[in-house]
Automatic annotation (TrEMBL):
Record-given protein name: PD-(D/E)XK nuclease-like domain-containing protein
Cross-referenced InterPro entries: PDDEXK_12
Annotated PD-(D/E)XK nuclease-like domain residues: 178-435
Residue segments, region Disordered: 43-91
Amino acid sequence: MSDDWDFIDSWLDNVLSSQHLETLPLKSASISSQDSITSVAQQIVPPSPPSSIFPGRPSLKQKRRARSDSYNCDTMPSPRKRIRAQDDQPSITTATSAFSDIQLAPTAHSRSSSPTKVKATSSVRELRDIYRFASPPLKFATSVDENTPQYIIDMIHGLPLHGVGVIPSSLKEIIKATLPFEDIPDYAFNASTPDNHFTDQNLWRTATSILQRAKDCFIDNSSEGPWLVIANKFLEDVFAQPELEGMLCVMDIQYSDVSSATLLPHVNGTAIPTKKVDVALAISPHTPVTAPVYAALRTSDPTIQFSQMSEPSVSRLALPGCVEVGEPGKNYLEASLQLGVWCFAGLAKLDELKVRSGDYAATVDYSKVEQNLLVFGWTAIGMDWKLHIAYRDTTDNGVVILGPLDSGGLGSVMAFFKLFKTVTALAKWAKEKFWPEFRSIVEA
């Protein structure tokens, strides 16, 4: 653990000294941001009344402090996170909370009249601001504008983000009978396609199962682990649809780093450390369409890597998308930043493959927009799934993360079917557009 923290400290020292930025005080490697906040809070708590007031009986504050000292659920990482941090080795990325290691000097006084309260600046916001001026920059946009490429606009317009026709009309009565209080507008039902009773009933069983599991996790205040299981199950059910022909699969990348520092944003020539996302959406190597292509490419170059990930089983696959999963209450800015850096590295890897000729020495012409593929991803924080689309900005060679886009979720029947249809549409795009374009790049 200490090696990971030392790496972040070293990176920050180099960046700040070379940029002549305002010095950002770093915490000791042995404490977390939560610990520092707790220590400050303990310093400003007024003293408890003398115990003589209630002889032989501890005060309420003493009881609370004793319980806090024995166990604090906010500072205890989940088992999965502890395992991830213990297993990781020092590298260009870190599985520990890199974001919490950056901290601006606190404001001297808050708006409160109390002279002892301070306002802590979010380290996540600080990193997002640094990324905006990295080389190349990583930028976030919330909606399309005059600078958005037409192929991105067309992609968004082709997604069922408004929820129109996302539910088979054959399920209207069963939904009404099973969930009489569920408010579903008429436009959500699709009456234009012929009913397929068997398929629709299977889809309904999938919906009720996933929704119930998500509801149970929410009520039970479950940690991230169970939510990750639900996300995996949901994606596997989507990809199992016959129309997708098994082209996509779900890959666990919790323990996999970005393979090369050249694929990350840089400040003064130094790669910015990152955290990982949880799940990659990959083009499967086990279908009649994809298996021969992967085998031929590996035969011609056994060491070739098709993705930005270091894990061998994932590095040999094309990755059009990802999902960053979190329990309810996870910081969205942090989740979107993790997703953004993953997408940045994915687009950089595609650019490397475009100029591959033994070595990666050529320069990509970003002005040729039609040659640029996009990648996509979701932040899945509890029941709330938000879609993001990443593309190359031709004006400065940076990467733009467009989102969050409301693509449904796991909180209601309407949200489930909108998410199911959105993931299906992007999986079809990966099968019909991303994979052929990827082949044209690597087989050139």
